[in-house]
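We modelled the chain as a single entity of 285 amino acids. Its sequence is:
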Amino acid sequence: MSIVIEGLEHVYLPGTPLEKTALHDVNLEIPSGSFCAVVGPTGSGKSTLVQHLNALLRPTRGHIYLDGVDINARGVDLRRVRQRVGLVFQFPEQQLFEETVWDDIAFGPRNLGLDPGEIERRVVRALELVGLGKDMAARSPFGLSGGEMRRVALAGVLAMAPDVLVLDEPAAGLDPRGRDEIIGRVAQWHRELGMTVVVVSHTLEDVARFATQVVVVAGGTIRYDGQVRSLLAEGDLMRQWGLDVPPLVELMEELRARGLTVRPDVLDVDETVAEILRAAGGEPA
């Protein structure tokens, strides 16, 4: 499912002393089947932007189109929009509320009016996708670890079988291993399910290996929309926009400053080692 945003503006508390323009003149196209990373500093407007994708927020001005349909037009079925565009907030485990894991994951499919057999199929598949066994289904979600609770919350959205999966800082609060695991699973869902994925992240490093499109939001508008490698080659611009430059890119910048001709747009440790060996005249291990 493709997403097109035209002239989006969002103003919080308009007409009051606390009025604030969070987004202005946002124009963006996210092609169907892409993995789009939306990055930017805290307060840049990232979360406000993605909450428009399923009409959770309505534009002050502008339009959002899903497969050519303006989702804010009169007569559009917002329930159907929110079924097709699944939105997962930061710390989704705080959204759990049912007595058992099964009931929490099944809540959305039940509200769609699906028959019991289809609900069961979706719950089992969702558990599988997030790496939880069927034996977890009868447990209380509130007795699980923090990581398990987050997986249950994600499973509840996946059970809705959305065409677009939007995740707002899915790795927030996790250690490096946990961040790698959750982003890796999102990339797996993107590959296996063929869905359009939009991931909001404060850290470009977390999503650089998987993103087919990177959008930088700063000061309430889009500063960059393109390929990740092209962005990684622009360390000074990233700093100007308030982004944290990935440590591997900083390493390559330092080596270039010392006279070693290396590419700065490396995605992971293996690429970094291979590039350093190449520039130094050695052979990759």
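As a brief sanity check on the tokenised model: Residues 176-193 form the longest helix (18 residues). The beta strands are 3-12, 20-30, 35-39, 61-66, 69-70, 85-88, 164-168, 196-201, 213-218, 221-226.
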